[in-house]
Design brief:
The protein is α/β, with parallel strands linked by helices. The protein folds into 2 domains: 378 residues, 3-Layer(aba) Sandwich (Alkaline Phosphatase, subunit A), CATH 3.40.720; 58 residues. It is built from 14 helices and 17 strands.
Length: 485
């Protein structure tokens, strides 16, 4: 029997319908995306590659994500009323009907807690930054502080998922994956979306880095973030085994590619193309990653600027310098995630360590980008998933264990470069830092603004999944135009 006839006889109903629908689906998709695919690579299988709806102001993003919810009350949003009400019950009008975490439950009768460190105005902009963050304060004129952020979630994982993917339940693509899908890569030898994690030493805040924080959701998996490890080789298995030369490795990959292409021809599963792309990226990274992680070409002044931990792999300072080196090489989205900000009972102790580990390197990154001419088209974002309560968690007479609980109703982030107006503060909270009352900015608004800065209309970058066209901002989001340069 001929092989083709044998294959037809063995074909299942599911296989037949899958192959039959592939041609129609491809034609429909081509029709729907015809406008946006003008700049696409002719070899592109799973990305739009070059989609922009208008001229971008930023080409790259570095997101300094602070896991755990940095306390806006302690760091950026000091109000005289907090000091005046220290030790007194929170007014009912500020907490009535509000939902807090189970650790707080009802906030009625909770005692107000004044900031433990003083605030100071910095630069010509007069931005108020706590003594906890002197280095960030010193670059205040480069920053835009958004003090009216708010979110819908009261616990860490749902709040981080909402901010990074647009949904509290895991399974949606994250910002970096959307950008990778929509814009493609500008560097063929490194991933377009890189993630690095770090944790403050000796912290008791047990934040977990879930893979869905940089996942691709229902987009093809080649668009997910590539996590660089904090110890040893940044990416496992890049080195060839002993006795395997580059020529042999290349031959193996070529044979695998041939087999995978046959499989794709038979089944049409886009994940097969993702597998081919990932194999090829790993091969190219064998030479690009060792060069990337070699700091020998960095000046002593640069290394000193980032702080004493800059050569310690896995530290926040090391990751910040790596982020600069990555965007120099046109990596599109770099996501640094630093855990330890969950100060339920360590405002007067561990918060000092947390700020010491992140303050200098964050400011150095902005300075370094600017002096190299990269800040103009690189968007830097610093912030967490929510803020902390203005009232105390714990006992007022136990100062060493003062803490603050999760607070979704107001928090602060800052942004720099990439089309953002420098030296300004946008939005405001009430006199107790409880609610965003002036120009409130929801997390969906932040997402829409990030996409806008990269030349994308957040309502038009969509992906059809389970019969619905999904987007990063779900059905919400408005660009925060006043902060754009």
């Amino acid at each position: 029997m001929k092989p083709t006839m044998e294959q037809r006889q063995r074909m299942t109903r599911r296989h037949f319908l899958g192959q039959s629908s592939l041609g129609l689906g491809t034609a429909a998709l081509a029709s729907l995306l015809a406008k946006d695919l003008k700049a696409a690579s002719p070899n592109s299988q799973t990305a739009l590659q070059g989609l922009t709806h208008f001229a971008p102001k930023a080409k790259r993003v570095i997101y300094l994500f602070q896991n755990g919810g940095p306390t806006h009350v302690e760091l950026f949003d000091g109000k005289p009323s907090l000091a005046a009400l220290h030790g007194k019950p929170v007014p009912d009008s500020f907490v009535s009907g509000k939902r807090f975490s189970t650790m707080t439950g009802k906030a009625d009768g909770k005692l107000m807690l004044a900031p433990v460190e003083p605030f100071k105005q910095h630069g010509q902009s007069g931005a108020t930054v706590s003594a906890f963050l002197p280095h960030i304060g010193s670059i205040a004129d480069e920053l835009c502080f958004v003090k009216s952020m708010h979110t819908d979630a009261v616990n860490h994982a749902p709040a981080i998922s909402l901010l990074l993917s647009g949904g509290q339940i895991p399974g949606r693509p994250t910002i970096g994956a959307w950008l990778n899908y929509g814009l493609g890569t500008a560097n063929e030898n490194l991933p377009s979306y890189v993630v690095m994690t770090s944790v403050t030493k000796n912290t008791t805040c047990g934040q977990i880095f879930y893979d869905f924080y940089w996942g691709s959701g229902f987009l093809p998996s080649e668009h997910q973030g590539v996590k660089f490890r904090g110890k040893g080789e940044p990416v496992l298995y890049l080195s060839n085994p002993k006795g395997v030369s580059q020529a042999v490795r290349r031959g193996i990959l070529d044979d695998l590619s041939t087999l995978n292409k046959r499989q794709f021809h038979d089944f049409g599963d886009p994940e097969i193309n993702s597998r081919i792309a990932q194999y090829e990226m790993a091969y190219r990274m064998q030479t690009s990653v060792p060069e990337l992680t070699d700091f020998s070409d960095e000046s002593e002044d640069t290394l000193k600027m980032y702080g004493p931990d800059v050569k310690e792999q896995g530290s926040f300072a090391y990751n910040c310098l790596m982020a600069r080196r990555l965007v120099e090489r046109d990596v599109r989205f770099v996501q640094l995630m630093h855990a330890g900000w969950d100060q339920h009972n360590s405002i007067t102790t561990e918060l000092y360590n947390q700020c010491r580990d992140t303050d200098q390197a964050s400011a150095a990154l902005v300075r370094d980008l600017k002096q190299r001419g990269l800040l103009e088209d690189t968007l830097v974002i610093w912030g967490g998933e929510f803020g902390r309560t203005p009232f105390i968690q714990g006992k007022l007479d136990d100062r060493e264990r003062w803490g603050r609980d999760h607070h979704p109703y107001a928090f602060t982030i800052w942004m720099a470069g990439g089309g953002i107006k420098p030296g300004m503060s946008y939005g405001a909270t009430d006199e107790l830092c409880m609610n965003a009352v002036q120009d409130p900015v929801h997390v969906h608004d932040l997402q829409a603004t990030i996409l806008h800065l990269l030349g994308i209309d957040h309502e038009r970058l969509t992906f059809k999944h389970q019969g619905r066209r999904f987007r990063l901002t779900d059905v919400h989001g408005h660009v925060v135009s006043p902060i754009l340069s």
